[in-house]
């Protein structure tokens, strides 16, 4: 049987578990938080006072902080790219079944999207109310990013895509959590809480995607190992890899944003390595036996990779020069 067909078989076999994954890792609409729970209630008497408080507190936050918060928000706002990508993965069929029910995998993608959609929404409203950033420039960046799409090197392969999402959900958990901690330290309680609660969603999503991979390992260990190896060898790129400002070329803003995140300690190369170690441990890569020769080599590569990457990271200095973004200029806070 061709490899793709085996992947389809495995996706089909796991399908019966997907409703359980939705129940276990996602939260029903009526029980989950909504962005307005974390923002001033503008229908209420105190709404405008709370907005003033946000604006006052926001003055304490520095340049790199705003750059990172903006880029995190824009990354979340490019959700249409991620949903359409996942809907196209082998085994995810968005047609309803003959009985009118959703295909379990596409139901997962939709429900995951529904949760994710609240992240950009919440951060966008906060940034707008803060008065510290140029919203029009940010909105143009978001539109560009959706226009430009991304290329994460997974193709339509479910195995590679679930490695990617496992990795990314934990990366976003870490970065939102750190931004929240920085905000809290500067007395921005509302923003601190918002980032922290978003980080909580990312953690549940991470736990779900790593479970998908673990389940695939039970069915097709050698191919799953090779897919993991392939993704780590080409490196996990960020979903906002093509980030740009208005009037600038594709991807030009990404590196400057990434440097700001490293300077703040919000997301560093060491976090990347930590994520890899966590995935290796959760999937028990070291204990994996009965692999093909090629998959065994892939396993050995993955086991050695964290140390190898640490040695390289130790030698790389983080650029200290701040780049001026259109998103945050004209605010006198440089
Ligand atoms: Fe998110
Ligand atoms: Fe996420």
From TrEMBL:
This is Acyl-[acyl-carrier-protein] desaturase. Fe cation 2 binds at residues 116, 169, 202, 205. Fe cation 1 binds at residues 76, 116, 119, 202. Its cofactor is Fe cation; Fe(2+). Binds 2 iron ions per subunit. It comes from the Bacteria. CDD domains: Acyl_ACP_Desat (cd01050). Belongs to the fatty acid desaturase type 2 family. GO terms for molecular function: metal ion binding; stearoyl-[ACP] desaturase activity. GO terms for biological process: fatty acid biosynthetic process. The keyword Lipid metabolism applies. Keywords: Fatty acid biosynthesis, Fatty acid metabolism, Iron, Lipid biosynthesis, Lipid metabolism, Metal-binding, Oxidoreductase. Homodimer.
